[in-house]
Amino acid sequence: YLYRMPSGIPGDISRKAHSTVEAHILKGNFGAFGIFGKLTADGIVPLEAADTDVYGLIVRSYPTQSALNGIGAAVPQSGIVNDIMRRGYMTVKCNAGT
């Protein structure tokens, strides 16, 4: 994609003007973009079953430089700075229901 991602990709902010995004270091293994994480002293980590303190959603930044992942197969990399959406609207994958 030359200028922007098409609509509907998980982790893409859908209304950019109405969002609040912060940069944080990702720790732990996130399985996809567009999922929730919590803030710890080390950085953003994936939620666990009993967690109630949600910090934000993992944003799929665009453009990025990665020759390791195929189209639609990219996952957030641990140990690097990534964008976290605190407020706004994002495209996410619906795992159940419609």
From TrEMBL:
Q: Which organism is it from?
A: Acinetobacter baumannii
* InterPro entries in UniProt: Struct_cement_gp24/gp6
The protein's name in its UniProt record = Uncharacterized protein
One Pfam annotation reads Phage_cement
